Structures are given as C-alpha cells and as structure tokens.
Amino acid sequence: MANLSLKGVGKTYGGAQQAAVTGIDLDIADGEFIVLVGPSGCGKSSLLRMIAGLETISTGEVAIGGRVVNRLDPAERDIAMVFQNYALYPHMSVRDNMAYGLKNRRTPKAEIAQRVEEAARMLELGPYLDRKPRALSGGQRQRVAMGRAIVRQPAAFLFDEPLSNLDARLRVTMRMEIRRLQKRLGTTSVYVTHDQLEAMTLADRLVVLNGGRIEQIGAPLEVYRRPASTFVASFIGAPAMSLVDAQIENGQLLLERYLLAHVGNAPGPVTLGLRAEELRIGPAGIPMRVEHVEELGAQRIVHGMIGAQRLSVADGSGAPLSETVLVSVDPARLNLFDTATGRRSELRLTAAQAPLPV
Amino acid sequence: MTDIPLAATRDRRLAGRLAAWWRAEPASPAKRVQFDRPLTPWLFVLPQIAVVVIFFYWPSVQAVTSSFYIEDPFGFGSTFVGTENYRDALASTEYRNTALFTAFFCAVVTALSLGLGLLLAVKADKVIRGAESYRTLLISVYAIAPPVAGLIGMMIFDMHMGPLTQVAAWFGYDLKVGIDYWDTAVALITISVWKQIPYNFIFFLSGLQSVPASVREAALIDAKSEWRRFRDIILPLLAPTAFFLLVINITYTMFDTFPIIDVIVKDKPANNPMTLVYKVYLDGFKGNDIGGSSAQSVILMVVVAALTIVQFRFLERRVHYG
C-alpha cells in the first residue's frame, strides 16, 4: 500500500521521431483506483509499463511509496501486474502460478500456502488449485492472474486491459469483482483500458490520455459532465456527446440561426457539446430531421440532422416520431468549446433563463 | 425352390456377392464417404507402400536373414551358421570397444551440440535486432553437406598444414589426427558438434521466440534473477523443442556422422575410433563379411529401437506441450 507519484514522465522509443508519452504529472493517493483511458496509441500502455519497469523511462521520475524506482528492476518495485492475455505460466499449476513470485522472494512456505489459500477462497479458485491453466476457462484464467497479483500483497496493482479478452457478459461481472476486491484490499491500482464504460464504472479518478498527453484528470462524473476538451467529450460517454458548430453574435448563442441562450462570451464561432440525455424532444425547439433510431429498451437514441450537423437525442417517451422533431435543451447544461483549440470554455449566461422556446 | 441343390444356391449367393462387391453400391454415406470401389484406396497408397517395402522392409529382412549365414566373400553361396555371427560380434573386444566409443561419442556430441545450440539461441534471442543476420550466419553451416564438413574439418585438423594443429603446436602439443586415437576422437567430436549446432540453434531460437512476451514479462515481475527465470519459465517451455532435438541429435550422431568419420578415418591406420555404423560398413564392404556386418546392423537396429522407446516412454512424459 503506497502512493504513486509521476513527475514529468515521458517516453521516446528508439528510432521514433515523436515521443509516445510526454510530460505526465500525476499523483495517486494510497488506495486510489486510477483508470488510464484513451484510444489505442495514446500512450496509456506505455505509461503503465513504465510504472511496472517493463519499459525504460526516457524522462521524468516515477516514485512508488516515496521511493524513486526509475532504475529498479520490475521485481524490485513492489508492484503486481495483471496482463491482457493473462500471461500465466502454462506448465505450472494454478497454485504454483500464484506461489512463484512469493517463492522467489523467500517467503516462508507456510505463509505462501496460507496466502494462496486465502486468495483462492476470495476468487473462488479452490477447486482448481491443482489444474494447469489450459484446463481453465477464460474467466478462471483471469482470476488466477488476479490471484497471482493478490498473494504478493504489493504496493500497487497494475492492470493492462485485463478484461478485453473476455466476452461481454463476463466482462461486466469481472469488472464488479475487480472493483469489490480492490475496495476490500485497499491497494492502490492503476488500470489501463480503451473501454470508456469500464473506465467510468471502475475509477475513483479517470485519466484521459490523447497523443501521449493528459487531456483531463477527474472523477468519472466530473469528466462526463464537464469534459475539458472536445476530445474528452467525444471519447467519454455512449452515445458520444454531439459536437456541433455554433455562433455567438451580440450576446446570443445561435445554433443554425436558432437562439439557444443569451451569453456574455466573446463573439465568434464556437463548438457546442450536447449530451443526448440533456436534449429533449418536445412541442418546441429546433427542428431535427430524424435519420435513424436505435432502440435500447429503456430508451431510444434518435439520430438526426440539424441543418447539416449530426445530433443524437435520448428519448424515453416511446411516443411515435414524426419525420421532423423539435429539440430543446436547458442552457445551463450546454458545454462550450473553443473551436480552434478544442479546449473547454465556460459558458456565461446572462439574464435568468427558462428553456428557450426558440 | 426346395429341389435346387444346396451347392447351387451357395454358388449363386457367392456370385451375387461378387457382383454386389463389384457394383459396390455406396451403402451409407457415413460408412463410405471417399471411395465407391474398395480397390481405389489401395491404389492410392501403393506408391508409399512400395517405397516402404522396397527401401525398408526388404533390406531389413535381408539383413536379418543374412545375419544367420556366413557368406562367401565373392558371392559363391552361403552357409547357415545360426547365431554364430551374433556371438562373434558380441564376444569381440573390438566390437565392444566400438560400441563403447559410440555411446561416448553419442553422449558427448548430443550434449555439446544441444548445449551450445541453446546457449547461442539464448544469446541471439536477446539481440532480436541483429537476429536476422545472426541466424543466417549460423544456419549457413547447416547447408554444408556432411562429407564437405568432414573435408573442411580434415583440413583444419590436418597433421601438416591444419591451422588447429599449428595452434596446438604453439602450446607444445603434437596433434595427430588420424593416428592418435584420442586426437582423432576430439576431431570427430568437434566436427560433428560444429555441424549440428546450427540445426539445434534454429529450433531453439524459434522455440524461444514462441514463448509469449507477456509470460516473460510476468516472470520479470515475479523473479529478479535472470537464471531463475530461465530455469523456471523459459526452459520448461522449451522442453518440447529440446525433446524433439534430443531424438534427432541421437539419431544424427548414430547414423548421420558417417560421412564425417569416413573422411577423417579412411586410408588411416586401423586403430582409429569409429561408430557402430561405420564399423558395419567397414566389415561389410571393406572386410566382405556380409554375415557379420548384418548381425551388427541387426544389433544396432534393436539398440536404436530400444533407445527410441525409452525416450518416448520415459522422457516424453516429463515434457509439457503448451
């Protein structure tokens, strides 16, 4: 159990022009569950592997529990890692797989046996302890991989997309199990995934990465509600936040010439971020041409066009839709982004506003 | 119908069955998927059977038969002598010495070529970038035919102009390959090992490269000592490759070193070391003792068969196939 601290961490691979990871500053509190999320190639795995010691750190400093580990072997960093394809030793039984790391650290035999038993009980692996990995299902293998990490009682758990080889249903149950275990053990964890839903449900804090840089750090809901950039806005949440071009003229926020709100922001083109569930189909609003409808059961997602721009609206009414519907939004829930930089800018509403019947 | 003789009924039945066999109605698709004539499959396997019979069973039977006869050196008939050829061979000190040397040679060459092949492969595996040229360089030796390897070896070990003889001379040692028993043995072992290393290297290298990267990384986190990781993780995962190579290498030292021995030992004084296979050839074709040589080859056949059975029964059980 320890805190983790990353200072200006960067990685440039040999022969590569550009750095894969640049200037990562991140402080992880003891017992915190951090999820690194981003599209493939964003540097999240490289970052995790640098913490683990499987990649050298090109610049900056990684400290685990106050101890700088830049020059330490992976085995000396007091971390345990769970790999995407489990990485179990195929020739060893489940018991030996879990015990191997402890044996190499000269843990007394009795204690190894006790820790393995305990982990097996926690993960319901008891009946399989003497089996080889090939005789186990995918979910069981993933449990063994977790067991191997748990028995070590390390300062930190590192998870490298551990659930992406499992089928959808198993992924959901394992996700909950990981969260439950981590809460129970209180071990600091860093978890890498490209699945934003996994990231949202697991994390104490999300770290959204793009192009080797941190886009935003924050609690899942904070990231969801107030994305720091258009990248985060489009990456986090399903369906993705609709990003549309809008104008500010004379203190009026206009979308396709329809007035949305009275604002005090500087005039010019802006990018507007609209969450599907914040939009309402109603008797008044901006007309949207319905293109297709995704029926999800509890609600449906209506995809359509406002002028030449795409928009997705969540609708729970189940009422029949006409070819063109009217869409309105609470101005307080609008997300405003700088069109040039893609960064968030705060919307300054003037005058008391009711949802505008535009 | 009762007045038809029994024999006639039987004949008719037989004819009917023959006709049915010829027409060979494909009874049910499950039973007869491939061929509708029972002879067709035999036609297809005939070439293979012919090869096996002509080149394996026939000579084997010949060897076994002639091992019970003493043959006239010029082919004018033969005399049945029972097991005398076997008793002669087994009682002869020369034969026993050759058998001992073969066992020694086999053990040393297999151990050295497997060990060095593995060592080189482990080192090459670490420098993956250079591996392409490294691999090509080391495999190229394998492309050399055994007699050529023997010839090159002979030149290196040559008593008058061989560079190795010169090197030995600098250290005050008089290397006499082809004359001194152990000098010749060393030369034979060196050339045989040298010839076999690339083969082992390639298999070990591909074995090493098929160990998943994530398993290596997991081991990196679990064990600090590189030797432990190799012993506990890499080596067990290489076991199937190693087992295959063991069988191949033993066969190699027993049989395929023949040309190397021939080049080094031929036309040299008679006290040189040789393997059982070479002795079979020497006694049979140089000594014209077909019976004795046949008996020896039958013994060799039995020994190799026994060895192979032992390998598969006892060693393979300890091998893990991923």
Explain briefly what this protein structure is.
The complex is a heterodimer of chains A (358) and B (322). Chain A is of the alpha+beta class and 358 residues long. Chain A is 23% helix and 33% strand.
Architecture overview:
The complex is a heterodimer of chains A (358) and B (322). By secondary structure, chain A is of the alpha+beta class. Chain A has 2 domains: 231 residues, P-loop containing nucleotide triphosphate hydrolases (Rossmann fold); 99 residues, Nucleic acid-binding proteins (OB fold (Dihydrolipoamide Acetyltransferase, E2P)), CATH 2.40.50.140. Chain A has 8 helices and 20 strands. Chain A has a 6-stranded mixed beta sheet with strand order 6-7-8-3-9-10, sandwiched between helices. In chain A, a hairpin with a 2-residue loop joins strand 4 and strand 5. In chain A, helix 2 packs parallel to helix 4. Chain A is elongated and about 75 Å long. The mean pLDDT of chain A is 89. Chain B has 322 residues and is mostly helical. Chain B has 2 domains: 28 residues; 232 residues, MetI-like (MetI-like fold), CATH 1.10.3720.10. Chain B is built from 13 helices and 2 strands, in the order ααββααααααααααα. Chain B has a two-stranded antiparallel ribbon. Chain B is flat and about 85 Å long. Chain B starts with 5 loop residues before the first helix and ends in a 7-residue tail after the last helix. The model of chain B has no long low-confidence stretch (mean pLDDT 82). Chain A: One of its GO terms (cellular component) is ATP-binding cassette (ABC) transporter complex, substrate-binding subunit-containing. Chain A: One of its GO terms (biological process) is glycerophosphodiester transmembrane transport. Chain A: GO terms for molecular function: ABC-type transporter activity; ATP binding; ATP hydrolysis activity. Chain A: Belongs to the ABC transporter superfamily. Chain A: InterPro entries: AAA+_ATPase, ABC_transporter-like_ATP-bd, ABC_transporter-like_CS, ABC_transpr_MalK-like, ABC_transpr_MalK/UgpC-like, Mo/tungstate-bd_C_term_dom, NA-bd_OB-fold, P-loop_NTPase.
